[in-house]
Specification:
- The chain is 64% helix and 7% strand.
- The protein has 28 helices and twelve strands.
- Strand 3 and strand 4 form a beta hairpin.
- Homodimer.
Length: 861
Amino acid sequence: MICLSPAAAMVFMQSYCEANSSISHTWVDEGIAPCFYFTLVSTILLTLAFFLGTIHCIFYQKYGTAMEPKFIPRSRLYGFQQAISILLLIQFLGEMVWRAAGGGELPGYVVLYGCFSVLGWAWAIALLRVERRRVLVMDRTRGHSAALLLFWALAFSAENLAFVSWYSPRWWWGLENNQQQVQFALWLMRYIGTGLLFFIGLKAPGLPRRPYMLLINEDERDVENSGQSLLGTTEENQSTWQGFRKKVHLLLPYMWPRGNIFLQLLVLLCLVLLGVERAINVFVPIYYKNIVNDLTDGSSWRTVATTVFIYVLLKFLQGGGAGASGFVSNMRSFLWIRVQQFTNRVVQVRLFAHLHSLSLRWHLSRKTGDVLRSIDRGTSSINSLLSYIVFSIFPTIADIVISIIYFITYFNAWFGLIVFICMVLYLTLTIIITEWRTKFRRDMNQQDNNAKSKAVDSLLNFETVKYYNAENYEVSRFEDTILKYQVSEWKTQASLAFLNQTQNIIIGSGLLAGSLLCAYFVTEGKFQVGDFVLFGTYIIQLYTPLNWFGTYYRIIQKSFIDMENMFTLFEEEEEVKDEVNAGNLLYKLGKVEFENVYFSYISGKEILQDVSFTVLPGQTVALVGPSGSGKSTIIRLLFRFYNIQGGCIRIDGQDISKVKQTSLRAHIGVVPQDTVLFNDNIRDNIRYGRITASDQEVEEAAIAADIHDKIMTFPEGYDTQVGERGLKLSGGEKQRVAIARTILKAPQIILLDEATSALDTQTERNIQASLAKVCANRTTVVVAHRLSTIIGADQILVINEGRIAERGRHEELLLKGGLYADMWMQQQQTQDSDSSSDTEAKDRSSEKLQPPSTSSDHHGH
């Protein structure tokens, strides 16, 4: 065993550390000894990198698999991570070279620190590349490994530990000579670099956002189905901060009220009041300290009274603890009301307009309950998001920074370090735990949507539920959705309780450490009693908003989650769009042309194939054929609910895809097969055809539609409420209201889609006569099931399997003996059988009404 003499040991220590220093001395000259600090930091980082990193690499090599290149996301931030890591590695090498080339003393700890740091960061870069290219197939987590995140976190914390030596002449803070200036520049580079790596590492930009097993097992059908979801499917583990730039870009128009000078001035005034609050929060504990010191030192009554008066005034302006209910805060909240209302109105109006601009395809497949809940939560979340970010998050962060600077300046670095460590731990754990809780909140929203969707769907189909005695089934199904919602709700609330307890432990620990240290300095005579009061007041005042910081963060995250579905609605593409330079339809005569039109709702299943026909001005063309042959689709294409895949549709020689939709639809009136009315009175439902129409014009349209007399029999007449979707009216009455609405619009082109299908024979004849008058000299396209209603059409098109099978007038088609003739014969036979059935029923009824025969009659017979 080799032993060193005390003299030799001293020589070794001096060659390893600087002159007049030893590694055994931890605290010298009001700071940490550089020899001890750099030895400890480099040793811990290298040990961590090699120990955890080696285990990490072994697992990835043994149990992992190489990722397919197509699943590795392209990210500039990942390249930025690599560049910073390499720059830090070069910096450690450069510092050793610079110290060696300087010709001065080169202590051993500098060489050790440089070599260990280079090795540690080289291993960290290797880990970063391994995670980029290989993955544990069964790994269900997201983001970087704990080894890499812990390495970055400790490296960043080590650089922050240098602040403790703020007053030490052995460190570089004084910038007194060239050496200290270079060391400070190198430290600044390390501080910024390690901080960026840690915070960017929380996002893990170079890694897939979803578990690799899901990516490799996802097939085209899953992609297609997920793409058809109305409100989108958000991954359970996806961070709500993903796509943050896009979300903020959508929010920007609502954050600044463009075009309104008054509201812009209110926003600026609110920001000024916010700055005033920050200043008040600093001076309140200072004046409280002055009061205690004045009373302790026996100052005059005039001095004490003045200090108390100023303190009470500041406290009045500040309010309870952190400006929660102070004069300035209340004034700011009052001024912000108008801005908040502006934001709420703009969001709702834009979203409502966007929904109306979406295609019929989207609206036919939507879930009304989901959409309504998403709109409701999304619009309310924008207000809370803006309010909490501007008036809670930013002020809290500002208060934290101000407090750290204040404690370091007027107390000492230990108090600043205590506050800083508590803040970092508090904010880091709050963010990590809250991100973990995200999936519970998102699942709770989904279950809430399901419950409300089931309830709305069941209530809209109330009659169907009654028809099949399915009340118990519907109630049971709704209860199941509530139970699933409550399971997710329990997970959300339980994880919230865990987060609150963690925050309380951190806050209590920081308050205890700071109070003990401050009390110790008071007993030593270094601080006055007022300083202890100042510390206690300031730290409690600081912890009050910090205690709410977790709530602010959760509310902001909840707002992002609640807005996700609303953002999905905003991102929903308009299927039918006007071209950039689209003009108005120039209506002349009303000539309609279909030329080689192809159309399909779903790719691969064509509804219309090579359909061509012409409707001359003033003519009536009837479309007949089996159900599902594409008759109603032709009506929808002419009204441009969809874009065709091939061919062209023209009106007066103008391609309808080249004109504005509003001008096209202004010239077309439609009476649909399934009439839906607004939950309003009859008068306003008819007036919807032309909003500016007078009551007299509404009644004239109702007379033409043969419904005026029926309306007048109702107790409230035209003020009769029709109920949800017009359920209070019969099918025939709803259809006549729709016909009256179209008559009031007075369009040049009329589309009738089974317009009289829900009417009895006599009413149908009356309406046919009315429609004949309305359609006179107007281009008309009729979809009919009853062939007797279109005998007088100028041209009849028989549609079969998406093609025009036959065309001609009624008599011509009967002579052909084709599909139309067969349909006509079948309907005639059906009518004859119905007529004979009615006659037999009348005969049986009359027999029942005959008096019974007598016995003499029987024998005589």
